[in-house]
């Protein structure tokens, strides 16, 4: 489940609820988008305002709120995974019995995604045969239930029942969802889409790039734990594709010159640059403030745009640069020359003749690297290519 992103954080009515505030923050640090669903009783410990402020999302506890959204179903549709922390004895019992008496328990019945349960309660309650049986029921149904830590509880009592450390919960959670976080602490800068060079207020010179490949790289990098900035020129993403960019810092631009300015600002701060944008090689020498009449359109004088990659290379420190080569044949020699000319570490060569690849959801080509690797990419999704490019960039980062 490499793309798990949308997380439901269910919060039960135990004192450890306050520790879940830190859990929420640390999940966000790792690129997860978290919706908090507290039980009504847990609001005695941490109020809805705290969860709303921390998550930046609405927080409700009953199916009777925001009824028009049918929240238990709409949240269920969007969720990739869930954590229930803390899970009290009562909440575990209600889930085991299949009850649906608040939003969280309704939601748990409605979702079919990996769920990590993090119990926290008094040792006597944890060891009670009823709880033991309920936990066994949850495990038999595929829930991952963490063992609570042994130690001092809220009072003087000592035993199993303590809420585990945030880091331990996140480790178990990522194990449960099979997440790969090999880009944690890394900054990834991506350019995507096609620049538009204005002729007059109505017309522009543009290209067929949809921004899909760059968006796929940005989304994959975010999933792998990176902090991601995406300089996006005129994308044609669907609403669903745009949703995968939540958590990515998006800088919208129009022209090559604008993209250049932001690249110069952002490049020194980054570890990896993926230059998937289709940058116009030239722009009209003059922009006409007024619409040019059709009789005057015989010729448009052009000026060459800077080669952004080449010019950015002079700011280079230890950055890994991934370039694209959109050609109308898969000529390895041209690609090798481009890899060197652009000063890139990795180059993806693809054949865009006859309207292929630009705007599509699939791609096909060859990845070349400065250390001599040559990887054939058979027809695959742009998401798979994104993962492959990030794998190669990571190898070169060391
Ligand atoms: N690129 C760039 N600045 C430009 C043109 C392209 O930085 N003015 C980048 C693209 O983002 C891509 C790579 O250079 O990563 C190769 O782009 P491509 O269009 O294949 O090659 P060009 O350099 O434009 O060369 P040509 O059009 O002659 O093939």
UniProtKB/TrEMBL annotation:
The keyword Metal-binding applies. It catalyses: N-[(R)-4-phosphopantothenoyl]-L-cysteine + H(+) = (R)-4'-phosphopantetheine + CO2; (R)-4'-phosphopantothenate + L-cysteine + CTP = N-[(R)-4-phosphopantothenoyl]-L-cysteine + CMP + diphosphate + H(+). Residues 185-392 form the DNA/pantothenate metabolism flavoprotein C-terminal domain. CTP binds at residues 281, 291, 306-309, 324, 338, 342. Pfam families: DFP, Flavoprotein. Coiled coil: none annotated. Residues 1-187 are annotated as: Phosphopantothenoylcysteine decarboxylase. The keyword Iron does not apply. Residues 188-398 are annotated as: Phosphopantothenate--cysteine ligase. GO terms for molecular function: FMN binding; metal ion binding; phosphopantothenate--cysteine ligase activity; phosphopantothenoylcysteine decarboxylase activity. Pathway: Cofactor biosynthesis; coenzyme A biosynthesis; CoA from (R)-pantothenate: step 3/5; Cofactor biosynthesis; coenzyme A biosynthesis; CoA from (R)-pantothenate: step 2/5. Its EC number is 4.1.1.36, 6.3.2.5. Binds 1 FMN per subunit. GO terms for cellular component: phosphopantothenoylcysteine decarboxylase complex. Keywords: Decarboxylase, Flavoprotein, FMN, Ligase, Lyase, Magnesium, Metal-binding, Multifunctional enzyme. Residues 6-175 form the Flavoprotein domain. Its cofactor is FMN; Mg(2+). Catalyzes two sequential steps in the biosynthesis of coenzyme A. In the first step cysteine is conjugated to 4'-phosphopantothenate to form 4-phosphopantothenoylcysteine. In the second step the latter compound is decarboxylated to form 4'-phosphopantotheine. Catalyzes two steps in the biosynthesis of coenzyme A. In the first step cysteine is conjugated to 4'-phosphopantothenate to form 4-phosphopantothenoylcysteine, in the latter compound is decarboxylated to form 4'-phosphopantotheine. In the C-terminal section; belongs to the PPC synthetase family. NCBIfam families: coaBC_dfp. This is Coenzyme A biosynthesis bifunctional protein CoaBC. It comes from Candidatus Planktophila lacus.
